[in-house]
Amino acid sequence: MRDPLSVLTDAFTAFVFGKVETTRLPVRTSTGQAQAVYLPTAAPGLGDSGVIIGREVYSGKGYIYDPFQLYGQQLPAPHWLVLGESGNGKSALEKTYVLRQLRFRDRQVVVLDAQGEDGVGEWNLIAQELGITPIRLDPMVANDSGIRLNPLDPSITTTGQLALLRTIIEVAMGHGLDERSGFALKVAHAYVTEHTTHRQPILTDIVERLRHPEAESAEAMNVDIDDVRAWGLDVALVLDRLVDGDLRGMFDGPTTVGIDLDAPLIVFDLSHIDRNSIAMPILMAIVGVWLEHTWIRPDRKKRIFLVEEAWHIINSPFVAQLFQRLLKFGRRLGLSFVAVVHHLSDVVDGAAAKEAAAILKMASTRTIYAQKADEARNTGRVLGLPRWAVEIIPTLTPGIAVWDVNGNVQVVKHLITERERPLVYTDRAMTESSDPSVDPELEWETEQRAILVEQQLNGTSQSTVA
């Protein structure tokens, strides 16, 4: 109960100045109606040019992303890192992103498909839908009808060939080449490229020349011919694995005729290769350099190079160095590199920590799906994420991720159209996690987003590379 003095003071004030406060009846309303009065605030989006990813969770706005449109304006580099444990939606995001980008006529995509089941890679369904035959690298069938990629293909410069040969050997040996072994390899490569003119040089030629070096190469350095042979012995043994060992048939002959480098989608199916063997980083190095010299061209196309199980690249110092050059070179010609890994700790504490840091620095876009709390804290520390983002990463449900686009951090729900769903969700993916776009409360919104996606995908890109 108010005291008499307050009542008297209010009465006197009202008499002198008039009524200064009106009495209002309480209003009861729903949160849906009240949000029109108390408008929420959210971080600004990335513009309206590009492909639709889904919607921003807190504001409900459509989330649109395109590295080619943002490059030079909001992005210092068009490269992208995708992180998260299995079953949270990384695969679905990659596939829908590629499908939507391919609807633009000036886009081209290469996928290194390192996962699969039932004898085919995970991207096999999408390749079939687009009328594409995957390039299946399989040492079990390579000698009969498999695909070959020649590290000594004439389309690769002699400098590139020698760098690739060194990388193959260093990855297999687990350490760098010493000066003597490097000299033996260099003279063998120089002799083969100079004297093989009637056909493509192949690895067998290099191995043969390492075993039987020319006297001129020894004389030029004033050393004994037996010394040159001894220096090249370990190198010859490593390359022999690609010629007559467990990796034979894939790289020991001329490049297979008929590989269509102008196709909108090129899928390298690596699912038959043991992902935990030394063969995988060797394959990554060979395919990466081969693409650098045969696929990336100054033709105004925007290219996307998507690598699953990318820790095979980032965790090997020698392969990482090759890809660093590819990323720097490709950026000028419109290349967006997409690396998909499960755990950042797999690479930042590995043998290639320095190279990994350089590649991660090039990735101006980072998408992080659910991780355990300890892993999330480590990821946040390495990537410089804000505290609130680190705290919610362990609570994310499948299909929802934290997106950091050069400091613009938002939480995004990935949405999938009915047309995309059967291509995106393979049997294995369906058993791992539920469809992140199926939510009864969002069915109407999903349908509206799907309409927008279809309208956009039927258009053409107006974006350019800065």
Automatic annotation (TrEMBL):
One of its GO terms (molecular function) is ATP binding. Keywords: ATP-binding, Nucleotide-binding. The keyword Nucleotide-binding applies. This is ATP-binding protein. It comes from Streptomyces zaomyceticus.
